[in-house]
Amino acid sequence: MGTPEAPNPAAVVVLAAGEGRRMRSARPKVLHEIAGRALLGHAVHAAAALAPEHLVVVAGHGRDQVREYLGGLASELSRSAMLAIQDEQRGTGHAVACALDSLPALSGPVMVTYGDVPLLDAATLRGLLTEHAAAGNAVTVLTAVVEDPTGYGRVLRTDPPDADPTLGDPNGPITGIVEHRDGTPEQLAIREINSGVYVFEADVLADGLATLAASTANSGPGNAQGEQYLTDLVGFAHAAGRRVGAQRCADPWLVSGVNDRVQLAEIRAELNRRLLVGWMRAGVTVIDPATTWVDVRVRLGQDVTLHPNTQLHGATTVAEAAEIGPDTTLTDCRIGAGARVVRTHGSGADIGAGASVGPYAYLRPGARLGESGKIGTFVEVKNSDIGPGTKVPHLTYVGDATIGERSNIGASSVFVNYDGVAKHRTVVGSHVRTGSDNTFVAPVNVGDGAYTGAGAVIRQDVPPGALAVSAGEQRNIEGWVNRRRPGTPAALAAEKALSDPPGRVDSGAPSDTVSAPTAGCGGGQLG
Ligand code: UD1
Ligand code: CA
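A: This is the predicted complex of the input protein with uridine-diphosphate-N-acetylglucosamine.
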């Protein structure tokens, strides 16, 4: 028989009642986000993966915001996390007692973890449970050996065989944990720290918390911070002859907590680095990992390329061989295989396979582009279906429109969807060619195979195969500038051009444009 399977814990308690004062934020610390998920969300996801019978979050500061957040998380996890309230932050031991007060009597392993330690993953937690069961421990502490243990609780063990005063015997029992503020100089030299994550047998936990509360009531907390320390339970268990063991975590990042925004940035960068390493190993090319950011829920296909300065947020998915960036931010977008999205800002958009977007496109929620379509330069699209092979190449706003297949929308067009009161839809058929600088005043339909002229304002439906023109014939009112704007630079330039046409080959010849017949140079009445 190999190592026994980790049992499902009776409960996981996630501590998150602290104020997080060093964040200097109106938001509770555990609701600050990294990689598109609140710190607490990372912790609760890892805890939920252990399928505990009870999952309890202890909140105090910002409890209403935490409650609301957990409500939203429940659907993502397809299970709920209970909220226990710790009114006053009287220490980690008191916090766990608040959680147990809200639960029926437990038996079996109970895990305690923190809401502000976001990189701690389910595999590490499972490893801790497995070690706890395999060693037959009453308490198992997740520890780490670090260069600078300042601020952490130190793990006290029996002397190591090689007598290194900074490390105890890794196979020997743990005799206790001492907090930094309460440690002797000798103890402070120890570099094995308490991560704050533990598995307790339920009875040991309940007895220990009762002892802790009673001793606090009798003589006050016997420590520098005047708190009920959960860490004291380790010493209690050892003194009672129960076995206390540890699992040393080889990767200190996994047990790193967030106390301020500097650490928040460091942990965010590290998580991002790890996510990108994972994607690169899975077959994604990341040109510049230093400027590429992906949220935990993002999914990328094989041979996707991410160019510099790309941020993929939320539930964005990018299918095989698509290329994103540079300078692109996508939130909750779906990008089809082989599509190309360049210098684009998008959210809630769905881009078909082989399509092309940007540079400088703005995709708003409900923007949908069919296979091999194009949304080009300085184009904004909102709540619109643009069919396969259809192109909207330049300087255009498409709002609340449905456009069929293989149509082409002329440069500088506006789909006028709003009459000041309500939004209306424009429907353009397939194989349509619209002229440049068109205005589509919704609601309006343009039939299959229709054309529109340059500058048209389309207010009425265009039947299939028709050419719609709405701009009047051009009239040139000659000499207007000279008469109405005399002495201006424009008038002087016109005078000069008319008296001395530089290198004109067609001087005097009729031009292509239509001239108003009566408005000659000699002045006279304007028509
Ligand atoms: C705690 C440990 C320390 C360990 C360190 C690891 C104790 C006494 N000490 O110290 O050994 O090295 O974590 O980071 O446990 N919390 C509550 N209610 C409270 C107090 C704290 O919910 O009354 C929560 C906080 O929100 C936080 C966590 O518990 O998420 C840890 O609390 P904190 O005060 O940061 O403990 P440390 O002093 O860092
Ligand atoms: Ca802390």
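The first helix runs from residue 39 to 48. The two ends are 103 Å apart (CA to CA).
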